[in-house]
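To close the section, here is one more complete example, presented without commentary so you can practise reading it yourself. The ligand is PMV.
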Amino acid sequence: MTIASAPGKIILFGEHAVVYGRPAIAVPVREVIATAEVTDIIQAAQGEIHIEAPDIKLDSWLHELSADHPLSRIINLTLDEIDPGTFPPLRLHITSTIPISSGLGSGTAVSIAVVRALSTHLDQPLPLQRQSALAFEVEKIHHGTPSGIDNTVVTYDRPIYFVQGEEPEILQSETPFTLVIGDTGQTSPTAVAVSQVRVAWQEDTSKYETAFEAIGQIASQARECIMQGRAKELGPLMNQNQALLEDIGVSSPELRVLIDAARASGASGAKLSGAGLGGNMIAMVDPDDADRVMIAMREAGAVRTLRTEVST
Ligand code: PMV
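Output:
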């Protein structure tokens, strides 16, 4: 039996602008994970794979899934990549504690956990860069035009500074810092928000390019702050980033209520994280204030709160 896992993630700065070539920062969230377990079975033909994913009520043979199902896609991509020849029938059991469609990277983490478990079980573990590249292919089903930041941060499991098409920079943080995450409970498919921004960008390119440029500059400043141990300055930068995300139309009243509650209860800054229009928000807190801020966020309607420490 082979077990592998991959973490959730949040985008700290730069979502949406990253799709248009600007830098962004993402960090892993190890408090939530996707896990894949591969076991040899006997009651099937060579090369058959039985998939069990109870979280999405899936219990099926690989050949029964359509070719564009995210799970059949990542399994077939992995098999094509490692070209294992004949192999015994397998059972693939997938579980995840990462909320679905809420900006925490659940689909990506499942893809990476499957690539790791399957390739390792078949004695051909893949390097990180290849794992990330395979998950990126599946992101295209979820996202349409993904930047690649999600598959990169989940694969590397480290804070990253990311520019589309360039090698990710692993951020060495001088001082760890604490974030709290609040879930609006509204699922929000990334593809919807990304295509809404695309349409608006086509209609008013100069407004959107100006906003993306400003967001990219915030991400660059945040990179300096993290590397130089000036984490206290990240809160105000988050507030600036949130104002720009509101300008480009991807916030929502529910996100705004949680963001306001976090700020009013002591967070030094807060913003939505991921595609927006629902999903999760994040807030920068002093570790001693984390519980108070999470309680305020729950009282304001968060269906789930989570605390994560960011370090390298
Ligand atoms: O998958 P999400 O909801 O974390 O969104 C990813 C961030 C976007 O910038 C909105 C899209 C992308 O591909 O970078």
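Once you have examined the tokens, check your reading against these statements. Residues 11, 15-16, 18-19, 103, 143, 146-147, 149-150, 190, 194, 274-275 surround PMV (CB under 6 Å). The chain has a mean pLDDT of 95.
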